[in-house]
Amino acid sequence: MHPLPIDPLLPEIVRRLERAPNLVLEAPPGAGKTTRVPRALLEHGAAKEANGEGARGEIIVLEPRRLAARLSARRVAEEIGEAPGETVGYQVRFEDVTGPKTRLRFVTEAILTRRLLGDPQLKGVHAVVLDEFHERHIHGDVALACLRHLQRTSRPDLRIVVMSATLDAEPAARFLGCDSLRSEGRRFDVRIEHATKEDERPLELQVASAVRTVMSLPEPGDVLVFLPGAREIRRAQEALEKLAAERDLLVLPLHGDLSPAEQDRAIRPAERHKVILATNVAESSVTIDGVVAVVDSGLARVMGHDPWSGLPRLRVEKVSRASATQRAGRAGRTRPGVCVRLYTKMDFERRPEHQPPEIARLDLTELLLELRAQKIDRALEWLDPPPPVSLAAAEELLVRLGALETEASSAGEVTAIGRRMLRYPLHPRIGRLLVEAEDRGVFDDATVLAALLAERDIRASARAQFGGGRGGRPGDVATEDSDLLQMRDLFREAQDARFTPHVLRAIGLDAGPTFAVDRAHKQLRRIGRLRDRDRGDDTELRKCLLTGYPDRVARRVRGRTLAMAGGGRAELAESSAVRDAPWLLALDGDESRRDVGTIRIASAIEPEWLIEFYADRIVESTRTTFVRTSQRVESISSMTYDGLVLDESPAAGTARADDAEAAALLAEAVLADGIAGLAAFAPEGALEEWVLRARFARTVDPSIPLVDDAFLRAVFLEHCMGRRSFAELREASFLDAVQARLGSVFTARIFALAPERITLARGRSVKIRYEAEKTPHIASRLQDFFGMKETPKVGGGKVPLVVHLLAPNQRAVQVTSDLEGFWERHYPALRKQLSRRYPKHAWPERPES
Ligand code: ADP
Ligand code: MG
Question: Which positions fall inside the Helicase ATP-binding domain (predicted)?
Fold first, then answer.
């Protein structure tokens, strides 16, 4: 066993854990934490057992990555001369290499949390080691909170060890109320070279140039390249072929989807120089000896969640400055090294210091269900508490899925359905649809749907969309009920052909995701203890999907535009085959915001199912509105689901709006643009004229009420009572209503003070014009005023009218309110002109008498 930097500390670690239950350990990657510390605890337990100090307990190590769990277990087993699965084993999703003798168990993901579900006391477990804690994966945070809770309640003897490569140990040590130990490994300087400007070339070409550069340095050694994922690694591998042949290099991929043998090959020392193309597993989870140069793409696949479904999704993101520093450090383990960053210094400096812990940014639905089932979610203390909004959203979704009780007496407790959902180690949406499928006898196909939803898209073309290409296979234009069922058909076709590569290619499937779906589907079948393959009924399957996505219902507004349950709009992707269905589920969307998102995977539903499944969420209401086209106030009874209208019909009987409401709506429709709208409900011009007369009358007799806009509005509202349409309004004169409201006395006063017409001396009746803020006036031919000495008056004889005197050609020859003065001063001169121009008319010298 070759010595490692951590070795001298091991006796101290063991001793401290004898005295206190908890310990935080910080040491740089490669120090030997993962392979030596758990083993030291194991051997110490064995020694005590041999001394008769009681049976040794099990050691569980929680790793954030499957690859690390697998490699570490294999390494430790090898160092103690055993095969994995004997004393040392590992348990990751889809793989369980443990046996009855296993005492040291490397596990990942939810395996520990789920073990706590079935065995809340962790019987027989002596210590739990949380490795790579600086990664702050959600399972590490949850495990820490749960274990601490257990330790404070019924297992004070349980040992908790937190190990990390970069974590500032203080917060964790304070949380656990314990010491922290630190081991400084030897580190050499690493020279960092940034890109001088942004490189537009494809990533793999940038990688190839960078590898060529570092291989040209004096004394080249092994090169470690950090790339986001398997696909990028494959491309880089191709791009490096030429250089590898020239320089006799060994190009080796290293990521979680490889077989253990392939993973070993990347780590094991080799005769030739190695170029290891790795994901962020090589950041701190595994150490490859002999690396002297690092090429860093600055990218990583990071766990996030689909904004539509909350389902976990990996996406490529820029790594934090802390990660970038960690990556560079991998070049300085054996001697001074170099790190080439494929991004600029400015880019580096703009990055966040750390990636926030997963618990602060991921969907918490699955976690909440697990914790609620143990009834400990409210009792837990957290290193960093989960955000209350995420918890509230999780709780709401769980209620909708039927996983939590809503009855007051047991509100929030996990229901029988919720317990059944927990059997499936997946997002509760998927658990729910599988439980429904068990009941409906369509379980086998439902496991395929579940796997398709949980894993990456199997369709090769689905991703071409993001590369700019158009989605959909050529000729794939048929309209379908469900994109997901269409994917199921493709998967079944591939399965029937035993996943032969050429068949996968022919039907447009991507091998990696297809295998992942196959694995997940098989695992789910195992959990459901299903033996036969029941090809399910598609309608039943679509119903099952609804039970998992009751809050993702959408109604087609037009074309590809959808109205979403709960509000908001979305677009259906062009590649979606669900082209007709008016009602559908938005199963998977793109990563943009919810209200403008694009739905990539949809599945039709029947609106009746919403009534059948969620009767308690259907809201029946009557909506009364003024309908422009019919010019009527109409009452519509509607049934809505989360704001989406399921059914509408004209309301009848008591459901109809009452008169006051209808009147208000009708009045509102007329008066929306102001008082002018009223004119339409009296003979042309009559209302305006009458209002002006009433206002004039009031200038003479202030006791007359003011007929202003507010008065008219009030009268109109009353006028609308009992009426529901413009047609009905027109049947009665609004002017009569105004006069009725003023009462007969005032109305008569107005008629008297502001008469409509006046009769001139020679018998001609002339209309009086009333205008706001002006003296009323009349206009008539000059001759009509012959015989009138004084100006005619209104306002009960108090207000002389303004008189427009017209020549025979209807042109005004004078405007005056002093007829007497006119006859005297102006008429004599005017008379001469008029007699010349209109000799046939009579122009007496003294016309007033
Ligand atoms: P740490 O957890 O502190 O990062 P590890 O315990 O994983 O360190 O590894 C310590 C050292 O053991 C590594 O630097 C490497 O030299 C060696 N080692 C660990 N695992 C393997 C393996 N699977 N194959 C070869 N060497 C390994
Ligand atoms: Mg480690």
Answer: 14-185
